[in-house]
DNA sequence: ATTGTCAAATTGGCCCTACCAATCTGGTGG
DNA sequence: CCACCAGATTGGTAGGGCCAATTTGACAAT
Protein backbone atom coordinates (compact mmCIF):
# COMPACT_ATOMS: atom_id res chain seq x y z
CA UNK A 1 0.00 0.00 0.00
CA UNK A 2 2.60 2.46 -0.95
CA UNK A 3 1.45 3.44 -4.41
CA UNK A 4 -0.07 6.74 -3.42
CA UNK A 5 3.17 7.77 -2.01
CA UNK A 6 3.71 11.26 -0.70
CA UNK A 7 5.39 12.30 -3.91
CA UNK A 8 8.62 14.17 -3.57
CA UNK A 9 7.56 17.49 -4.89
CA UNK A 10 9.99 19.72 -6.67
CA UNK A 11 9.23 23.29 -5.93
CA UNK A 12 11.73 26.13 -5.86
CA UNK A 13 10.94 27.41 -2.43
CA UNK A 14 7.89 29.13 -1.11
CA UNK A 15 6.00 31.72 -3.03
CA UNK A 16 4.51 32.31 0.35
CA UNK A 17 3.05 35.79 0.54
CA UNK A 18 1.47 34.36 3.61
CA UNK A 19 2.00 36.49 6.64
CA UNK A 20 4.03 39.44 5.52
CA UNK A 21 2.86 41.23 8.62
CA UNK A 22 5.34 39.24 10.66
CA UNK A 23 8.00 40.21 8.17
CA UNK A 24 7.01 43.83 8.42
CA UNK A 25 7.18 43.78 12.17
CA UNK A 26 10.57 42.11 12.01
CA UNK A 27 11.72 44.72 9.54
CA UNK A 28 10.44 47.42 11.83
CA UNK A 29 12.38 45.96 14.73
CA UNK A 30 15.51 45.71 12.60
CA UNK A 31 15.03 49.22 11.30
CA UNK A 32 14.63 50.68 14.76
CA UNK A 33 17.53 48.56 15.94
CA UNK A 34 15.52 47.42 18.90
CA UNK A 35 17.34 44.99 21.11
CA UNK A 36 16.65 42.56 23.86
CA UNK A 37 14.33 43.80 26.54
CA UNK A 38 13.09 46.79 24.62
CA UNK A 39 9.42 47.41 24.26
CA UNK A 40 7.58 47.42 20.99
CA UNK A 41 4.84 49.93 20.31
CA UNK A 42 1.47 48.92 21.65
CA UNK A 43 -0.78 46.72 19.58
CA UNK A 44 -3.01 49.65 18.76
CA UNK A 45 -0.05 51.68 17.67
CA UNK A 46 1.34 48.89 15.50
CA UNK A 47 -2.08 48.38 13.97
CA UNK A 48 -2.23 52.01 13.02
CA UNK A 49 1.32 52.11 11.80
CA UNK A 50 0.93 49.11 9.51
CA UNK A 51 -2.61 50.05 8.61
CA UNK A 52 -4.06 46.75 9.67
CA UNK A 53 -6.52 45.68 12.31
CA UNK A 54 -5.48 44.90 15.81
CA UNK A 55 -6.43 41.27 15.27
CA UNK A 56 -3.86 40.90 12.54
CA UNK A 57 -1.23 42.42 14.80
CA UNK A 58 -2.19 40.13 17.60
CA UNK A 59 -1.87 37.07 15.39
CA UNK A 60 1.52 38.14 14.16
CA UNK A 61 2.67 38.78 17.71
CA UNK A 62 1.34 35.39 18.72
CA UNK A 63 3.56 33.84 16.07
CA UNK A 64 6.57 35.80 17.26
CA UNK A 65 5.78 34.76 20.78
CA UNK A 66 5.66 31.06 20.00
CA UNK A 67 9.10 31.23 18.45
CA UNK A 68 10.19 33.14 21.53
CA UNK A 69 11.22 36.32 19.81
CA UNK A 70 8.91 38.50 21.88
CA UNK A 71 7.16 38.31 25.19
CA UNK A 72 3.73 39.73 25.86
CA UNK A 73 3.22 41.22 29.27
CA UNK A 74 -0.44 41.85 29.96
CA UNK A 75 -1.27 45.44 30.65
CA UNK A 76 2.27 46.43 30.02
CA UNK A 77 3.46 45.81 26.49
CA UNK A 78 5.30 43.62 24.05
CA UNK A 79 8.98 43.14 24.72
CA UNK A 80 11.78 41.76 22.62
CA UNK A 81 13.47 38.73 24.05
CA UNK A 82 17.17 38.01 23.91
CA UNK A 83 17.20 36.40 20.52
CA UNK A 84 20.64 34.97 21.01
CA UNK A 85 19.72 33.30 24.26
CA UNK A 86 16.07 32.45 23.96
CA UNK A 87 15.36 32.13 20.28
CA UNK A 88 14.02 28.87 18.99
CA UNK A 89 15.02 27.03 15.86
CA UNK A 90 11.61 27.89 14.45
CA UNK A 91 12.53 31.54 14.68
CA UNK A 92 15.17 30.85 12.06
CA UNK A 93 12.74 28.85 9.96
CA UNK A 94 10.30 31.71 10.20
CA UNK A 95 12.89 34.22 9.09
CA UNK A 96 13.94 32.01 6.22
CA UNK A 97 10.31 31.61 5.18
CA UNK A 98 9.86 35.34 5.20
CA UNK A 99 12.81 35.79 2.92
CA UNK A 100 15.15 37.34 5.43
CA UNK A 101 18.62 36.15 4.44
CA UNK A 102 20.67 34.36 7.06
CA UNK A 103 24.05 35.85 7.69
CA UNK A 104 27.25 34.00 7.00
CA UNK A 105 27.84 33.00 10.59
CA UNK A 106 24.41 31.47 10.85
CA UNK A 107 24.91 29.41 7.74
CA UNK A 108 28.27 28.19 8.98
CA UNK A 109 26.69 27.22 12.25
CA UNK A 110 23.90 25.51 10.41
CA UNK A 111 26.46 23.48 8.48
CA UNK A 112 28.20 22.55 11.68
CA UNK A 113 25.02 21.48 13.39
CA UNK A 114 24.10 19.48 10.35
CA UNK A 115 27.40 17.65 10.58
CA UNK A 116 26.96 16.88 14.24
CA UNK A 117 23.41 15.67 13.92
CA UNK A 118 23.57 13.82 10.67
CA UNK A 119 26.82 11.98 11.25
CA UNK A 120 25.60 10.72 14.60
CA UNK A 121 22.16 10.21 13.14
CA UNK A 122 23.43 8.10 10.29
CA UNK A 123 25.23 5.89 12.74
CA UNK A 124 22.02 5.39 14.66
CA UNK A 125 20.17 4.77 11.43
CA UNK A 126 22.61 2.00 10.61
CA UNK A 127 21.89 0.38 13.94
CA UNK A 128 18.14 0.73 14.06
CA UNK A 129 16.70 1.01 10.59
CA UNK A 130 13.57 -1.02 10.09
CA UNK A 131 12.13 -2.25 6.83
CA UNK A 132 9.85 0.74 6.49
CA UNK A 133 12.81 3.05 6.93
CA UNK A 134 14.73 1.27 4.21
CA UNK A 135 11.67 1.50 2.02
CA UNK A 136 11.50 5.24 2.47
CA UNK A 137 15.21 5.55 1.80
CA UNK A 138 14.88 3.43 -1.32
CA UNK A 139 11.99 5.54 -2.50
CA UNK A 140 14.09 8.64 -2.01
CA UNK A 141 16.95 7.07 -3.94
CA UNK A 142 14.65 6.07 -6.76
CA UNK A 143 13.23 9.58 -6.95
CA UNK A 144 16.80 10.83 -6.96
CA UNK A 145 17.75 8.60 -9.87
CA UNK A 146 14.81 9.82 -11.89
CA UNK A 147 15.58 13.42 -11.05
CA UNK A 148 19.23 13.06 -12.01
CA UNK A 149 18.24 11.38 -15.25
CA UNK A 150 15.75 14.11 -16.02
CA UNK A 151 18.20 16.82 -15.09
CA UNK A 152 15.74 18.43 -12.69
CA UNK A 153 16.71 20.24 -9.52
CA UNK A 154 17.92 17.73 -7.00
CA UNK A 155 17.23 19.77 -3.87
CA UNK A 156 13.95 18.13 -2.89
CA UNK A 157 15.35 14.64 -3.44
CA UNK A 158 18.41 15.47 -1.42
CA UNK A 159 16.26 16.69 1.42
CA UNK A 160 14.00 13.66 1.25
CA UNK A 161 16.95 11.29 1.41
CA UNK A 162 18.40 13.00 4.44
CA UNK A 163 15.01 13.16 6.11
CA UNK A 164 14.52 9.47 5.42
CA UNK A 165 17.83 8.73 7.10
CA UNK A 166 16.85 10.93 10.00
CA UNK A 167 13.61 8.99 10.28
CA UNK A 168 15.57 5.75 10.34
CA UNK A 169 17.28 6.91 13.52
CA UNK A 170 13.99 6.14 15.22
CA UNK A 171 14.55 9.27 17.25
CA UNK A 172 11.66 11.66 16.71
CA UNK A 173 13.41 14.52 18.45
CA UNK A 174 16.38 14.29 16.15
CA UNK A 175 13.99 13.98 13.25
CA UNK A 176 12.21 17.15 14.24
CA UNK A 177 15.43 19.12 14.36
CA UNK A 178 16.72 17.77 11.06
CA UNK A 179 13.33 18.52 9.60
CA UNK A 180 13.41 22.14 10.69
CA UNK A 181 16.85 22.22 9.34
CA UNK A 182 15.95 21.26 5.83
CA UNK A 183 12.94 23.52 5.93
CA UNK A 184 14.98 26.57 6.64
CA UNK A 185 17.73 25.79 4.19
CA UNK A 186 15.48 24.79 1.32
CA UNK A 187 16.01 27.96 -0.64
CA UNK A 188 19.75 27.67 -0.37
CA UNK A 189 19.63 24.01 -1.29
CA UNK A 190 17.66 24.94 -4.34
CA UNK A 191 20.41 27.26 -5.46
CA UNK A 192 23.04 24.74 -4.49
CA UNK A 193 21.57 22.25 -6.94
CA UNK A 194 20.69 24.90 -9.48
CA UNK A 195 23.09 23.58 -12.07
CA UNK A 196 22.72 19.84 -12.38
CA UNK A 197 26.39 19.13 -11.83
CA UNK A 198 26.32 18.35 -8.14
CA UNK A 199 23.34 16.01 -8.28
CA UNK A 200 25.08 12.91 -9.69
CA UNK A 201 27.80 12.93 -7.07
CA UNK A 202 25.31 13.51 -4.29
CA UNK A 203 23.17 10.68 -5.61
CA UNK A 204 26.18 8.33 -5.72
CA UNK A 205 27.06 9.20 -2.16
CA UNK A 206 23.49 8.69 -1.10
CA UNK A 207 23.45 5.25 -2.70
CA UNK A 208 26.64 4.24 -0.96
CA UNK A 209 25.32 5.47 2.35
CA UNK A 210 22.07 3.62 1.85
CA UNK A 211 24.00 0.42 1.19
CA UNK A 212 25.91 0.80 4.41
CA UNK A 213 22.76 1.54 6.35
CA UNK A 214 21.00 -1.41 4.78
CA UNK A 215 23.93 -3.65 5.65
CA UNK A 216 23.82 -2.41 9.21
CA UNK A 217 27.34 -1.08 9.03
CA UNK A 218 26.73 1.94 11.17
CA UNK A 219 30.33 3.07 11.36
CA UNK A 220 30.78 2.99 7.63
CA UNK A 221 27.50 4.79 7.09
CA UNK A 222 28.47 7.53 9.51
CA UNK A 223 31.83 7.91 7.80
CA UNK A 224 30.19 8.16 4.43
CA UNK A 225 27.81 10.78 5.72
CA UNK A 226 30.68 12.77 7.13
CA UNK A 227 32.50 12.62 3.84
CA UNK A 228 29.33 13.46 1.96
CA UNK A 229 28.69 16.55 4.03
CA UNK A 230 32.31 17.58 3.93
CA UNK A 231 32.38 17.38 0.16
CA UNK A 232 29.59 19.90 -0.01
CA UNK A 233 30.92 22.37 2.51
CA UNK A 234 33.26 24.09 0.13
CA UNK A 235 30.40 24.79 -2.23
CA UNK A 236 28.29 26.07 0.59
CA UNK A 237 30.89 28.58 1.58
CA UNK A 238 31.21 29.57 -2.02
CA UNK A 239 27.47 30.04 -2.15
CA UNK A 240 27.73 32.20 0.90
CA UNK A 241 29.98 34.60 -0.88
CA UNK A 242 27.38 35.14 -3.55
CA UNK A 243 24.39 37.28 -3.04
CA UNK A 244 21.22 35.29 -3.26
CA UNK A 245 18.35 36.66 -5.25
CA UNK A 246 14.99 37.07 -3.61
CA UNK A 247 16.06 38.62 -0.35
CA UNK A 248 14.59 41.97 0.43
CA UNK A 249 17.44 43.16 2.50
CA UNK A 250 16.33 44.24 5.91
CA UNK A 251 19.67 45.19 7.37
CA UNK B 1 27.35 42.90 39.88
CA UNK B 2 25.25 40.55 41.86
CA UNK B 3 22.31 42.66 42.85
CA UNK B 4 20.72 43.11 39.48
CA UNK B 5 22.18 39.85 38.31
CA UNK B 6 20.28 38.00 35.62
CA UNK B 7 19.07 35.94 38.51
CA UNK B 8 18.92 32.27 37.97
CA UNK B 9 15.36 31.99 39.01
CA UNK B 10 14.14 28.96 40.81
CA UNK B 11 10.60 28.28 39.88
CA UNK B 12 8.89 24.93 39.89
CA UNK B 13 7.62 24.96 36.36
CA UNK B 14 5.09 27.22 34.81
CA UNK B 15 2.24 28.77 36.64
CA UNK B 16 1.05 29.23 33.15
CA UNK B 17 -2.73 29.50 32.85
CA UNK B 18 -1.81 31.36 29.75
CA UNK B 19 -3.21 29.86 26.62
CA UNK B 20 -5.26 26.96 27.72
CA UNK B 21 -7.19 27.35 24.51
CA UNK B 22 -4.37 25.70 22.62
CA UNK B 23 -4.44 22.93 25.18
CA UNK B 24 -8.18 22.56 24.78
CA UNK B 25 -7.90 22.33 21.03
CA UNK B 26 -5.16 19.75 21.39
CA UNK B 27 -7.32 17.82 23.82
CA UNK B 28 -10.18 18.02 21.38
CA UNK B 29 -8.00 16.63 18.62
CA UNK B 30 -6.76 13.86 20.86
CA UNK B 31 -10.27 13.08 22.02
CA UNK B 32 -11.62 12.85 18.49
CA UNK B 33 -8.56 10.86 17.51
CA UNK B 34 -8.04 13.06 14.52
CA UNK B 35 -5.00 12.14 12.49
CA UNK B 36 -2.83 13.58 9.80
CA UNK B 37 -4.70 15.24 6.99
CA UNK B 38 -8.01 15.40 8.76
CA UNK B 39 -9.91 18.62 8.96
CA UNK B 40 -10.73 20.43 12.15
CA UNK B 41 -14.07 22.12 12.64
CA UNK B 42 -14.28 25.60 11.21
CA UNK B 43 -13.10 28.53 13.29
CA UNK B 44 -16.68 29.62 13.93
CA UNK B 45 -17.57 26.15 15.06
CA UNK B 46 -14.57 25.91 17.37
CA UNK B 47 -15.35 29.32 18.77
CA UNK B 48 -18.86 28.24 19.59
CA UNK B 49 -17.78 24.88 20.96
CA UNK B 50 -15.20 26.38 23.30
CA UNK B 51 -17.35 29.39 24.07
CA UNK B 52 -14.73 31.91 23.07
CA UNK B 53 -14.47 34.55 20.42
CA UNK B 54 -13.26 33.72 16.99
CA UNK B 55 -10.21 35.89 17.56
CA UNK B 56 -9.06 33.66 20.37
CA UNK B 57 -9.46 30.61 18.16
CA UNK B 58 -7.54 32.26 15.38
CA UNK B 59 -4.65 33.09 17.68
CA UNK B 60 -4.52 29.57 19.01
CA UNK B 61 -4.56 28.16 15.49
CA UNK B 62 -1.81 30.58 14.53
CA UNK B 63 0.31 29.13 17.31
CA UNK B 64 -0.40 25.58 16.20
CA UNK B 65 0.45 26.59 12.68
CA UNK B 66 3.81 28.06 13.57
CA UNK B 67 4.82 24.84 15.27
CA UNK B 68 3.59 23.03 12.19
CA UNK B 69 0.90 20.99 13.84
CA UNK B 70 -1.85 22.29 11.60
CA UNK B 71 -2.15 23.92 8.22
CA UNK B 72 -4.67 26.60 7.38
CA UNK B 73 -6.08 26.47 3.91
CA UNK B 74 -7.93 29.68 3.11
CA UNK B 75 -11.56 29.18 2.25
CA UNK B 76 -11.28 25.53 2.99
CA UNK B 77 -10.43 24.68 6.55
CA UNK B 78 -7.84 23.80 9.11
CA UNK B 79 -6.04 20.52 8.60
CA UNK B 80 -3.86 18.44 10.86
CA UNK B 81 -0.35 17.88 9.62
CA UNK B 82 1.68 14.72 9.96
CA UNK B 83 3.07 15.39 13.40
CA UNK B 84 5.66 12.65 13.11
CA UNK B 85 7.10 14.03 9.89
CA UNK B 86 6.52 17.73 10.08
CA UNK B 87 6.39 18.60 13.73
CA UNK B 88 8.86 21.10 15.07
CA UNK B 89 10.79 20.97 18.30
CA UNK B 90 8.66 23.84 19.51
CA UNK B 91 5.62 21.63 19.21
CA UNK B 92 7.11 19.52 21.96
CA UNK B 93 7.94 22.59 24.01
CA UNK B 94 4.40 23.78 23.56
CA UNK B 95 2.98 20.48 24.69
CA UNK B 96 5.26 20.41 27.69
CA UNK B 97 4.25 23.96 28.54
CA UNK B 98 0.61 22.99 28.37
CA UNK B 99 1.17 20.17 30.78
CA UNK B 100 0.77 17.34 28.31
CA UNK B 101 3.11 14.61 29.55
CA UNK B 102 5.67 13.26 27.13
CA UNK B 103 5.61 9.54 26.64
CA UNK B 104 8.49 7.30 27.56
CA UNK B 105 9.83 7.01 24.04
CA UNK B 106 9.97 10.74 23.67
CA UNK B 107 11.88 11.16 26.88
CA UNK B 108 14.36 8.47 25.86
CA UNK B 109 14.83 10.20 22.55
CA UNK B 110 15.26 13.49 24.31
CA UNK B 111 17.98 11.97 26.46
CA UNK B 112 19.69 10.59 23.40
CA UNK B 113 19.58 13.90 21.57
CA UNK B 114 20.90 15.60 24.62
CA UNK B 115 23.84 13.24 24.67
CA UNK B 116 24.61 13.79 21.01
CA UNK B 117 24.38 17.55 21.18
CA UNK B 118 25.96 18.23 24.50
CA UNK B 119 28.92 15.89 24.17
CA UNK B 120 29.81 17.38 20.82
CA UNK B 121 28.91 20.81 22.08
CA UNK B 122 31.16 20.55 25.08
CA UNK B 123 34.04 19.62 22.84
CA UNK B 124 33.39 22.71 20.74
CA UNK B 125 33.09 24.77 23.89
CA UNK B 126 36.53 23.58 24.96
CA UNK B 127 37.94 24.75 21.66
CA UNK B 128 36.21 28.07 21.31
CA UNK B 129 35.19 29.45 24.67
CA UNK B 130 35.86 33.11 25.11
CA UNK B 131 36.24 35.04 28.30
CA UNK B 132 32.60 36.04 28.40
CA UNK B 133 31.61 32.39 28.04
CA UNK B 134 33.82 31.42 30.93
CA UNK B 135 32.33 34.25 32.92
CA UNK B 136 28.83 32.96 32.34
CA UNK B 137 29.90 29.44 33.20
CA UNK B 138 31.54 30.67 36.38
CA UNK B 139 28.42 32.59 37.30
CA UNK B 140 26.38 29.44 36.81
CA UNK B 141 28.79 27.49 38.96
CA UNK B 142 28.68 30.10 41.68
CA UNK B 143 24.88 30.07 41.66
CA UNK B 144 25.07 26.30 41.83
CA UNK B 145 27.31 26.39 44.86
CA UNK B 146 24.94 28.71 46.65
CA UNK B 147 21.98 26.58 45.74
CA UNK B 148 23.63 23.40 46.92
CA UNK B 149 24.60 25.09 50.15
CA UNK B 150 21.08 26.36 50.66
CA UNK B 151 19.58 23.02 49.77
CA UNK B 152 17.30 24.57 47.16
CA UNK B 153 16.20 22.85 43.99
CA UNK B 154 19.14 22.61 41.64
CA UNK B 155 17.17 22.35 38.38
CA UNK B 156 17.52 25.95 37.28
CA UNK B 157 21.23 26.04 38.08
CA UNK B 158 21.76 22.81 36.20
CA UNK B 159 19.99 24.23 33.19
CA UNK B 160 21.93 27.47 33.36
CA UNK B 161 25.24 25.66 33.46
CA UNK B 162 24.40 23.54 30.46
CA UNK B 163 23.08 26.55 28.59
CA UNK B 164 26.25 28.44 29.40
CA UNK B 165 28.30 25.60 27.95
CA UNK B 166 26.06 25.54 24.89
CA UNK B 167 26.65 29.26 24.51
CA UNK B 168 30.38 28.68 24.67
CA UNK B 169 30.17 26.54 21.55
CA UNK B 170 29.71 29.81 19.70
CA UNK B 171 27.14 28.02 17.58
CA UNK B 172 23.83 29.80 17.86
CA UNK B 173 21.94 27.03 16.12
CA UNK B 174 23.13 24.45 18.58
CA UNK B 175 22.37 26.89 21.34
CA UNK B 176 18.81 27.30 20.15
CA UNK B 177 18.21 23.58 20.13
CA UNK B 178 19.75 23.01 23.55
CA UNK B 179 17.70 25.91 24.79
CA UNK B 180 14.45 24.44 23.56
CA UNK B 181 15.60 21.27 25.07
CA UNK B 182 15.94 22.61 28.58
CA UNK B 183 12.72 24.51 28.24
CA UNK B 184 10.71 21.45 27.50
CA UNK B 185 12.34 19.28 30.11
CA UNK B 186 12.24 21.80 32.90
CA UNK B 187 9.39 20.15 34.74
CA UNK B 188 11.12 16.80 34.71
CA UNK B 189 14.36 18.39 35.75
CA UNK B 190 12.56 19.94 38.65
CA UNK B 191 11.41 16.54 39.82
CA UNK B 192 14.81 15.08 39.12
CA UNK B 193 16.37 17.48 41.59
CA UNK B 194 13.43 17.39 43.97
CA UNK B 195 15.39 15.77 46.75
CA UNK B 196 18.67 17.56 47.20
CA UNK B 197 20.78 14.44 46.89
CA UNK B 198 21.71 14.67 43.24
CA UNK B 199 22.70 18.30 43.31
CA UNK B 200 26.14 17.98 44.94
CA UNK B 201 27.33 15.34 42.49
CA UNK B 202 26.02 17.31 39.53
CA UNK B 203 27.74 20.40 40.85
CA UNK B 204 31.03 18.55 41.24
CA UNK B 205 30.79 17.26 37.70
CA UNK B 206 29.97 20.72 36.46
CA UNK B 207 33.03 22.13 38.18
CA UNK B 208 35.27 19.49 36.66
CA UNK B 209 33.84 20.12 33.24
CA UNK B 210 34.29 23.84 33.62
CA UNK B 211 37.92 23.30 34.53
CA UNK B 212 38.50 21.26 31.40
CA UNK B 213 36.74 23.82 29.24
CA UNK B 214 38.71 26.63 30.83
CA UNK B 215 41.93 24.74 30.24
CA UNK B 216 40.96 24.24 26.63
CA UNK B 217 41.05 20.49 26.96
CA UNK B 218 38.15 19.81 24.65
CA UNK B 219 38.48 16.05 24.62
CA UNK B 220 38.49 15.81 28.38
CA UNK B 221 35.58 18.17 28.65
CA UNK B 222 33.55 16.14 26.19
CA UNK B 223 34.36 12.97 28.07
CA UNK B 224 33.31 14.52 31.33
CA UNK B 225 30.07 15.67 29.79
CA UNK B 226 29.40 12.21 28.45
CA UNK B 227 30.04 10.71 31.87
CA UNK B 228 27.95 13.40 33.52
CA UNK B 229 24.97 12.73 31.30
CA UNK B 230 25.39 9.01 31.57
CA UNK B 231 25.42 9.17 35.34
CA UNK B 232 22.02 10.81 35.25
CA UNK B 233 20.37 8.54 32.71
CA UNK B 234 19.61 5.79 35.17
CA UNK B 235 17.74 8.25 37.35
CA UNK B 236 15.85 9.57 34.39
CA UNK B 237 14.67 6.13 33.48
CA UNK B 238 13.77 5.56 37.08
CA UNK B 239 11.76 8.75 37.00
CA UNK B 240 10.07 7.42 33.93
CA UNK B 241 9.09 4.24 35.67
CA UNK B 242 7.42 6.13 38.45
CA UNK B 243 5.41 8.42 36.34
CA UNK B 244 4.35 6.11 33.59
CA UNK B 245 2.80 2.71 34.08
CA UNK B 246 4.18 -0.26 32.22
CA UNK B 247 7.33 0.10 30.25
CA UNK B 248 9.43 -1.66 27.79
CA UNK B 249 13.07 -0.98 28.32
CA UNK B 250 14.59 1.34 25.78
CA UNK B 251 16.88 -0.72 23.61
C1' DA C 1 -27.01 8.88 -17.49
C1' DT C 2 -23.42 12.10 -18.01
C1' DT C 3 -21.71 16.46 -18.20
C1' DG C 4 -21.51 21.44 -17.88
C1' DT C 5 -22.93 25.59 -15.48
C1' DC C 6 -24.03 28.67 -12.12
C1' DA C 7 -25.68 30.37 -7.70
C1' DA C 8 -25.82 29.79 -2.75
C1' DA C 9 -23.56 28.30 1.41
C1' DT C 10 -19.25 27.78 3.74
C1' DT C 11 -14.71 29.22 5.15
C1' DG C 12 -10.53 31.62 6.37
C1' DG C 13 -8.72 36.60 6.29
C1' DC C 14 -9.55 40.71 8.12
C1' DC C 15 -11.48 45.09 10.12
C1' DC C 16 -13.87 47.45 13.78
C1' DT C 17 -16.05 48.63 18.19
C1' DA C 18 -16.55 47.80 22.85
C1' DC C 19 -15.52 46.25 27.41
C1' DC C 20 -12.58 44.36 31.12
C1' DA C 21 -8.84 44.07 34.44
C1' DA C 22 -4.42 45.10 35.57
C1' DT C 23 -0.85 48.31 35.20
C1' DC C 24 1.23 52.66 34.79
C1' DT C 25 1.26 57.64 35.31
C1' DG C 26 0.88 61.89 37.28
C1' DG C 27 -0.91 64.90 40.38
C1' DT C 28 -2.87 65.84 44.79
C1' DG C 29 -3.22 65.97 49.72
C1' DG C 30 -1.25 64.78 53.94
C1' DC D 1 8.84 63.68 51.18
C1' DC D 2 5.69 60.24 51.01
C1' DA D 3 1.21 57.94 50.59
C1' DC D 4 -2.69 57.69 47.94
C1' DC D 5 -5.95 57.95 44.37
C1' DA D 6 -7.99 58.81 39.70
C1' DG D 7 -7.36 58.79 34.85
C1' DA D 8 -4.90 57.01 30.87
C1' DT D 9 -2.73 53.04 28.77
C1' DT D 10 -2.32 48.22 27.62
C1' DG D 11 -3.02 43.44 26.58
C1' DG D 12 -7.09 39.97 26.60
C1' DT D 13 -11.30 39.02 24.64
C1' DA D 14 -16.08 39.00 22.80
C1' DG D 15 -18.88 39.76 18.92
C1' DG D 16 -20.55 41.68 14.58
C1' DG D 17 -19.72 42.41 9.87
C1' DC D 18 -17.63 42.28 5.12
C1' DC D 19 -14.72 40.14 1.52
C1' DA D 20 -12.90 36.73 -1.67
C1' DA D 21 -12.24 32.20 -2.77
C1' DT D 22 -13.69 27.60 -2.46
C1' DT D 23 -17.00 24.09 -2.10
C1' DT D 24 -21.37 22.22 -2.86
C1' DG D 25 -25.43 20.98 -4.99
C1' DA D 26 -29.20 21.84 -7.83
C1' DC D 27 -30.51 22.50 -12.48
C1' DA D 28 -30.08 22.40 -17.38
C1' DA D 29 -28.10 20.70 -21.68
C1' DT D 30 -26.33 16.88 -24.25
From TrEMBL, chains A, B:
PROSITE patterns in UniProt: HTH_GNTR (PS50949)
Keyword set includes Transcription: yes
A molecular function GO annotation: DNA binding
Domain HTH gntR-type: 15-83
Keyword entries, A-Z: DNA-binding, Transcription, Transcription regulation
Transcription listed as a keyword: yes
Pfam families assigned to the protein according to its UniProt record, in alphabetical order: FCD, GntR
Highest rank taxon of the organism: Bacteria
SMART domains attached to this UniProt entry: FCD, HTH_GNTR
Name of the protein in its database record: FadR family transcriptional regulator
Amino acid sequence: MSPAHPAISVRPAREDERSDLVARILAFVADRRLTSGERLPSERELAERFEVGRNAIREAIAVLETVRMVERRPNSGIYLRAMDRDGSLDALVLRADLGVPLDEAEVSELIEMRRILEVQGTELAGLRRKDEDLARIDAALEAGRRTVAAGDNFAACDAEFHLAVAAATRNSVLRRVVNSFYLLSRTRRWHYFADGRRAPEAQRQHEAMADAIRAGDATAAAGLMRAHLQSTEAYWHELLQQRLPGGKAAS
